[in-house]
Amino acid sequence: MHYPFIHGAELALRKRQEAEGLVPEFRGETYDTGDISYLAVSTCMVLIMVPGLGFLYSGLARRKSALSLIWACYMTAVVSLFTWYFWGYSLAFSKTATNGYIGNLHSFGMKNVLWGDDGATYPELLFAAYQGMFAAVTGAIVAGGIAERGRLFPVCVFTAVWITIVYCPIACWAWSANGWAAKWGVLDYAGGGPVEIGSGVGGFAYAIVLGRRKEQLLLNFRPHNVSLVTLGTALLWFGWLGFNGGSALGANLRAVYAIMNSNITACFGAMSWCLLDYRLERKWSTVAVCSGIISGLVAATPCSGVIPLWASVILGVSAGVVCNFATKIKYLCRVDDSFDTFAEHGVAGIIGLIYNALFGADWVIGLDNATEHRGGWLSHNYRQIYKQICYMLASVGYTLFMTVLIGFIVNYIPGCKLRASEDAELRGMDDDQIGEFAYDYVEVRRDYLSWAPPAQTLQGASPQGGSEAEGEISNKVD
User: Ammonium transporter AmtB-like domain: from which residue to which, for each copy (predicted)?
Assistant: First the structure.
């Protein structure tokens, strides 16, 4: 037996332990240290997306609920990883599954997950860790649906069930060797179905179950801290390069190509969205830039390792324009999708999947020197379009139905009522659910309907308007 990473006394000890059955037989002769290092770094990069989402959501919300959204992103990611460790990975990627819908529990608790297949250049345990970050990020994106009105413990319960019943099956369809979509030849490079459609439609469906925020509490609503929005976007962009680049599963040219495609799409998405918003008020919007970057990165997720670079220019413009107008869907449906999760994730994910059929190139797919596929129309594979559309419709329909169903069921579990009370919504989720605040100088309450001070207080005010009561009122900001 050859041990490329073990030498000297450690090698002798290893052989003795192996002969006595104390340790599993070494099967890593084909491991590539470059691939292992790259995938490990990509795993860490994807994790950065969780606080990025937390800062993004926190900045877009009002101050009285800022910290609760950071908490929700962190905790749903924790719950997702907990679920992934015990049964999630097995349900998505078990190799002994007998159907193309969902796996079995062959790898429950990471059992039978260590070395990987013969000839693999990285251990399967590393692949499981990498894919676990995808599940964590997806769960955190869905958590945006609770904005300013959702209770925190129920969303954790919901996330555990949702990852199991929604995310894992769609991941199995697209990425498992036994998945029906993978066998059919559907192109989904880094998660247009399980990650983007799953999170976008899932967050939208959760908002449907929760209901709208109270209209009278939304007067003068605006993001309370755009600086946090830019910080969150920066962390997301950085993490996304590990998300899309790492999906090549090795330090190869396809990974480099995916990173370049992601950057191009993000840039053109940002410019398109920003120009569309500029036409309305003749002012440049920072939130518009961030929204365009995110929509571009989302659109690149399913196709950054599939389409040529020039097609990413078209993709970025398409994502920026279509997703910008898609933000109006929530008004047509009267759904309080506070952070435009459906427009920026669901719609952009759909666009990326369709672009795989239109611009998928067999030579780009083969840049990892391992994957073979006929590509899309660019490679004269005209049948790819109906495969992509069927997979997209299946992902949207399944996610929407199951998310609403899970939400209604969890809502009736004792102690798991999804929505906070109207009084709690008025005071803010930070005060009601956590008891801690993002800003220690902020007054808890902002009641627009009861701002008028007592008449006797106003009569005692000084000519300069410097009464104590008036000073208290002026500090009541959201």
Answer: 39-439
DSSP for 430-448, written as a single string: IIIIIS--S-TTS-S---G
- Contacting residues for 396 by C-beta, under 8 A, at least 6 apart: 197, 201, 346, 350
Give the predicted TM-score (pTM) of the model. 0.87
Q: Within a 10 A sphere around the Cβ of 395, how many other Cβ atoms? A: 28
Structure tokens at 219: 């007067």
**265 within a domain of the structure (yes/no):** yes
The confidence band for 216, taking pLDDT boundaries of 50, 70 and 90, is: low
For 345, the domain range is 33-423
In a domain, 402, yes or no: yes
Inside any domain, residue 258: yes
Could you read off the pLDDT of 224-283 as tens digits, one per residue?
Answer: 899 999 999 999 999 999 999 999 999 999 999 999 999 999 999 999 999 999 998 899
Tens digits of per-residue pLDDT, 289-336?
Answer: 999 999 999 999 999 999 999 999 999 999 999 999 999 999 999 999
Domain total of the chain: 1
CATH number of the domain encompassing residue 142:
1.10.3430.10
Q: φ, ψ for residue 419 (rounded to 5)?
A: -100, 140
H helical segments located in 247-284: 253-281
Which of 433, 449, 436 has the alpha carbon at shortest distance from 147?
A: 433
pLDDT in tens, 372-420: 999 999 999 999 999 999 999 999 999 999 999 999 999 999 999 999 9
Encoding tokens for residue 34? 């470059």
**C-alpha distance across the termini of the chain, in Å:** 66
Report how far apart, in Å, the C-alpha atoms of 51 and of each of 137, 229, 236, 467 are: 10, 11, 8, 42
